[in-house]
Amino acid sequence: MPNRSPHRSSNNSKAHLPVITVLGGSGFVGTELTHRLAEEASEIRVLTRRAQRVKSFRVLTNVKVVETNVHDLAELTEAIQGSDVVINLVGILNSSGGQSKNSFDGAHAGLTETVVAACEAADVARYLHMSALGADENGTGAYSRSKGKAENHVRASSQLAWTMFRPSVIFGANDSFFNRFADLLRLAPIMPLARADAKMQPVYIGDVCDVMIGALHNPDSIGQSIDLGGPEVFTLKELVSMTAQMAGLKRWVIGLPDPLGRLQAFLLEFVPGKPFSRDNFDSLKTDNVLPEGVEAQPTSISAVVPRYLGNSDWNGELQGYRTMARR
Ligand SMILES: NC(=O)c1ccc[n+]([C@@H]2O[C@H](COP(=O)([O-])OP(=O)(O)OC[C@H]3O[C@@H](n4cnc5c(N)ncnc54)[C@H](OP(=O)(O)O)[C@@H]3O)[C@@H](O)[C@H]2O)c1
Description:
This protein has 327 residues and is α/β, with parallel strands linked by helices.
């Protein structure tokens, strides 16, 4: 079910939006956005590498899941033919290295170059591109640089009517931030944490979807890069401590000095699912917060996250964290 923003109403009338193709539509953001778009669009095509794994849209009659090699220009061009809008949500947090389709460069920059070329070849003008706050071709960390390169491929197109979205960490029932930290915190009473002082401004998935759908209805958003952050800034240590409380756990979170933090990142690269990496460590050297003057999205962590982490009565330290968030 879609995560509704408690602050905004949605347009329930069908088919105000035309045919939309979504890449990465099977993921955390894609599943939510596709459910929301399905209320308005006449047809949505979700392109995926493996259709068998995508089960979440079976009840939606106007959503078609199409198995496609999105990295192949000819195949992708064919798949998006007749679309009015293409939305690219493909992204990875762990790179297989090199230039493969599963490397940062392959999944972000390389794929975006192919998507832009396919849109131009298929005459699809409207393009929504999901990037990330802090994406910068010359930035810290391979993730951020590859996302920055992808942005530049989009900006270089003279044919596309694009809008770009640059969120900080996104939270919602199936997120991989709070849920993953909650899983890790359940393993031991002490959580040693790298880059504990790094600042973040988590944003609610319902708000992200509202902004993306709003952009489709607003021609003024064409050519805009929209930074997205929530109403509060926290350090990573505060977020992890809050996670423990919201999951009903008593845990001790200890910040590690950088040399130990980097060693931890290296060791965690060998753990299945790679919960943390040296590139994640490098990315955390830069605070992930909105630039001065950019309006924050409304939904707070405390309004949503306790409901899916298990401790819905959580309010013990809420006031203290709110005070810190306004620093
Ligand atoms: N979640 C966050 O906190 C956050 C924060 C900032 C920015 N973002 C950005 O938002 C977008 C969506 O994030 P998400 O959390 O929804 O990610 P997600 O749940 O991991 O989903 C990513 C999707 O990308 C597709 N994909 C992954 N690797 C691919 C590859 N090598 N080639 C082609 N397709 C591939 C997958 O589709 P199939 O497996 O179906 O092919 C998957 O559905 C990403 O661009 C991400 O960088 C997310």
